[in-house]
Amino acid sequence: MSIKIFLEKIMPEKPLGPSPTFIVFDVLKALEIVAEFGLIGRGSLSEKLGLGEGATRTLISRLTKAHLITSTRNGCILTEKGKKLWEQFKISIPHKLKIKDNELTFAEYNVAILIKNRAEKVNIALEQRDAAVRAGALGATTLVYSGGKLALPTMSTDISKDYPKAFRQIMQLMNPSDNDVVIVSCGATLKTAEYGALAAAWTLL
User: Which site from 99, 100, 160, 195 is most exposed, i.e. has the minimal number of CB atoms within 10 Å?
Assistant: First the structure.
């Protein structure tokens, strides 16, 4: 089972009333934080996620029931299953990084994300942009690496010529290979830029 399907299955069912208190990208971010810190307390996790304590408790409960984390008095740690799932995610999406201003950015916060071996799933990139906007980003640009060139569908077959600053930054940070996809998401906050990038990438998994 893919990580996308697995994580969507452990999400709470959507209620008829208000929206859920957390989304699948909060779950992904929680796994990333726990993987990074090794052991982290509930309060610190809540703060880093930008979620309330109640939402964080529910999220931790879901991850515990899915056997992805163990919650102890000292904090949360990944289980072996959680570690394997996170490693699987990192194979598909090895890089997610803040990126400096360039010709493709237009907001205060910008995040670039690399998706391995998914170029054939990109059409004219509207699906990725729309997914990013629904997640709170201001917009997103999708790039495809093929034949040694980084292209912007419908606009540029070689961004090294048309957007040289963006090209240099992306190549240095992402080091893409043939058939990889790079998405640059722009947001009013770091979280909306990051979740926009994840939402756009989610459409390709």
Answer: 100
Q: By the 8 A CB rule, do 88 and 3 touch?
A: yes
> How confident is the model over 98-119, as pLDDT tens digits?
999 999 999 999 999 999 999 9
For 48-152, list the strands marked E by DSSP: 69-72, 75-78, 95-98, 109-115, 139-146, 149-151
Average pLDDT along the chain: 94
CATH number for position 113: 3.30.1360.30
Q: Give residues with Cβ within 8 angstroms of 6, minimum separation 6.
A: 66, 85
Same domain membership, residue 99 and residue 82: no
Q: At what angle do helices 24-37 and 42-49 cross, to 10 degrees?
A: 130
Residues 141 and 192 sit within 8 Å (Cβ to Cβ): no
The whole-model pTM stands at 0.93
Q: Which residue has the tokens 């299955």?
A: 9
pLDDT given for residue 14 in this prediction: 62
Query: Residue 62 pLDDT more than 50?
Result: yes
Place of tokens 């949360």: 76
Q: Which residue, among 84, 73, 85, 78, has the nearest Cα to 41 in the 3D structure?
A: 73
